[in-house]
Design goal:
Helix content: 55-70%
Number of helices: 4
Strand content: under 5%
Mean pLDDT: 80
Shape: elongated
Order of helices and strands: HHHH
Distance between the termini: 58 Å
């Protein structure tokens, strides 16, 4: 599915889609190891669709794009960057 179609879904629908894609990918991997599958390219499509869905969910988390029905006040990017800077600077200062 195209990313534009995924962006129209709500967060709950995207999380359900991600769960379904993970399950389908597991089943495809299992079938590949036990028998020959009809369409081996299906694994590639499922992996890419899963990556698209997870990317869109992550964009909503950091606030770069908003999903329909997503709260406006939830922006994690600034908090995450501050935490990384604080953790990253420990032990790298000059000695007194």
């Amino acid at each position: 599915m195209k990313p534009e179609k995924y962006r129209e879904l709500t967060r709950e629908e995207l999380e359900r889609t991600a769960r379904d894609l993970r399950e389908e990918l597991f089943n495809l991997r299992f079938r590949v190891s036990t028998q020959k599958i009809d369409n081996p390219l299906r694994m590639r499509h499922v992996r890419r669709d899963l990556a698209r869905v997870l990317t869109i969910i992550r964009e909503d988390d950091i606030g770069s794009r908003r999903l329909p029905g997503s709260p406006e006040g939830k922006i994690w990017a600034d908090q995450g960057m501050k935490a990384k800077k604080e953790v990253g600077n420990e032990g790298h200062g000059q000695k007194d």
